[in-house]
């Protein structure tokens, strides 16, 4: 009988926020239907390219599972700097999906996991799922402090622990309201090919948040999620732009 053992892996569980509502609305709104289709094409490509792309990342210990409105990404924790790599993957996913009009909620942890092209299970998967469903609450990806600790024990090959910590600090911040670490994806302007592309993305994000705040002003549960996103957006704008006044959401 084949031996089965858990591996130590970083694992991220992502949920496309508001997906169920969008599906129910899509029967009468072709724009929403198109958005759903684009988002699922995108997450499907992430999985496909990991195993069958030009440069399959599976060879570097990365695994991806996309199903319905969820995405699971994991990395072998023994790979140097793998914690940073999974977080950077999530930066791109969060920005790309928000650009399509779908914010992401999720969580990242590290622990025992079995993740192949056909299956994904283990204590770390359960922990990531519970963190997302019970703690994330808003359109943010919360980061377990264990991810930071493990990554600093095994930094990227070209990095000292100090440099690795500096890189992590640039993409993670702590929410002052509940002390949860979360992925600072909006601020990563340098991950866009051109400054103009980032500027256009920021403008679209501003319009998106304003629209959602208006749409859900009478639904307290959903409205508070976009109030959080508005505050995060405004904080980002003040830190990234030298003259932020025209971009702020009042």
Explain the overall architecture:
It is a single chain. The chain is of the alpha+beta class. It folds into 2 domains: 179 residues, 2-Layer Sandwich (Alpha-Beta Plaits), CATH 3.30.70.1230; 63 residues. Helix content is 50%, strand content 18%. It has 8 helices and 8 strands, in the order βααββαββαβααββαα. The strands form 2 sheets. Strands 1, 2, 3, 4, 5 and 6 form a 6-stranded mixed β-sheet that branches. Strands 7-8 form a two-stranded antiparallel sheet. α3 runs parallel beside α6 and α7 runs antiparallel to α8. The longest helix is centred in the N-terminal third of the chain and has 23 residues.
The number of domains: 2
Number of strands: 8
Quote the beta fraction: 15-25%
What is the CATH homologous superfamily assignment of the largest domain?
Nucleotide cyclase, GGDEF domain
Q: Assembly state here?
A: single chain
What low-confidence regions span 5 or more consecutive residues with pLDDT below 50? none
Please give the CATH class of the largest domain. Alpha Beta
Mean pLDDT: 94
Q: What is the molecular shape?
A: globular
CATH topology of the largest domain: Alpha-Beta Plaits
Measured as a percent range, the helix fraction is: 40-55%
Query: So how many helices?
Result: 8
H/E order of the elements? EHHEEHEEHEHHEEHH
Main pleated sheet? 6 strands, mixed
Intertermini distance: 63 Å
> Which structural class should the secondary elements be placed in?
alpha+beta
Quickly give the CATH architecture of the largest domain: 2-Layer Sandwich
| Computed Rg | 18 Å
Organism: Massilimicrobiota timonensis
Protein name: Guanylate cyclase domain-containing protein
